[in-house]
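Incident log entry.

Two folding requests arrived from the same account within the same minute. Monitoring flagged them as a possible duplicate submission, but the sequences differ. Recording both here for audit purposes.

Request one:
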Amino acid sequence: MICVSLFMQYALNLKPCILCHLQRFCVVLLFCISFVAFIQKGYSLRAYRIFLTGALISSVLGISFSSRQLYLQSLPADLVPSCVPDLDYLLSTLPILDVVLIAIQGDGNCAEVLWTFLGISIPGWTFIGFIIVSSYLIVAFIFSNQIHSRFSSR
């Protein structure tokens, strides 16, 4: 997902909005948690479940950010919130908590549909990706005892 977003940003010159950056953060966090869990050897069932929970939290945050952006994209033009300056400017002028609150709310830039594939916009595809990952993580958590015992016995 990150490779696709970087391709869209640099090859297709699509400028990411604040909610896009938050969705990217969730993907990177999900990757980092998964990578640490992957390289760990012989950890306990409790640690395995903690990794699954952390990954699920990251994925659910991604779902919430992408659904917020989909909501903003579905608004009629007269109800779209006003645009704010770009993220670099906000980070240099405002406290980080204010920037986070602005980012979570989204702005007019987030309501703009820049690209679609099969009639689905970019946040729609990230929403689908996060739903798939979340579904896998929930199943893995439900069967965590069996999965952990299978791989820890090797």
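Request two (distinct sequence, not a duplicate):
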Amino acid sequence: MQPVRIAAASLCRRAGHFRDAAAPKTRRMQKIEHIGIAVKSLETAVPLYEMLLGTTCYKTEQVESEAVSTAFFHTGDTKIELLASTDPEGVIARFIEKKGEGIHHIAFAVADIWAEMKRLKEQGFELLSEEPKEGADNKLVCFLHPRSAHGVLVELCMEKP
């Protein structure tokens, strides 16, 4: 087992992932805050996910600026967010048209979204907005372009102050 760890650490070093050795030891990405799932209809998806997860939807909310309706579920320390478009030309509608229903993004909780956006931009990640936006569930959010993270849409989210 040890040779695997050494090989993995060596690979990370070669890829430059340890260049932050002098940085503060605080965790920048605190935890997976939620996983976003694009669905065509909350009316059909919410009951399905209630059965699947064995819990009830604790909150629904509309985010007008993104033309999306959301529904949230707790599952352990993480949440599941269902996203349905409220506009046929909205980002979720376009996503579903192109890729079908399914996982849309993974969101990480951060303590300071502005500092994290600055750090990631300096490291070459492409942000989809220069400033955090108002998101669902009382959050400020910023997305990283999927091409910056091997095809994964990453969301940073922070509880509004």
